[in-house]
Specification:
By secondary structure, the protein is an alpha+beta fold. It folds into two domains: 34 residues; 109 residues, Immunoglobulin-like. The chain has three helices and nine strands; from the N terminus they run ααββββββββαβ. Strands 2, 3, 5, 6 and 7 form a five-stranded antiparallel β-sheet that branches. A four-stranded mixed β-sheet has the order 4-1-8-9, with no helix packed on it.
């Protein structure tokens, strides 16, 4: 135990931390209910472009993702937003970051005269979000291919 800190002080700190975190999420519930995930024509990008759509989820709702293609920052993405990034034909890596959280890089193959659509968002949006924020910040976000439902 840290010298000088009693268990009561530690419990009070943890209780305040959780109260602030819960209050933050309650505050954004109204915004979350109004926002919608991208769908339909929004997910169809121009030829020769990578289309990246961000899910609307409570984790990091007030913050934007930094989009990295081949390790270079190419843009920012807000919840529910869709962005199109022109990229050359060939293999590329795509990842997103938010503060110290990041996704694993996804390797994609861009063919000539086609477009490609990917989703990004938080991997954890349930009770696991707080522990995983500290245990696995390098896997907290995810980039994955869009599948037509």
């Amino acid at each position: 135990m840290i010298k000088g800190l009693s268990p009561a002080v530690i419990l009070i700190f943890l209780a305040l931390f959780w109260a602030v975190w819960i209050g933050y999420n309650i505050y954004h519930v109204k915004k979350l209910r109004a926002a919608r995930n991208p769908s339909g024509d929004q997910l169809t990008g121009p030829t020769g472009c990578l289309t990246l759509a961000r899910r609307v989820d409570p984790t990091g709702f007030a913050r934007r993702f930094r989009v990295l293609i081949d390790g270079r920052r190419v843009g920012l993405l807000s919840p529910g937003e869709v962005a199109h990034f022109p990229i050359a034909t060939g293999k590329h890596t795509v990842a997103v970051r938010m503060d110290w959280y990041r996704s694993e890089s996804l390797t994609i193959e861009m063919a000539a005269d086609t477009g490609l659509t990917l989703w990004c968002g938080a991997r954890y949006n349930d009770w696991r979000c707080m522990p995983m924020a500290f245990l696995q910040p390098h896997r907290y976000l995810v980039v994955e291919p869009h599948t037509k439902d």
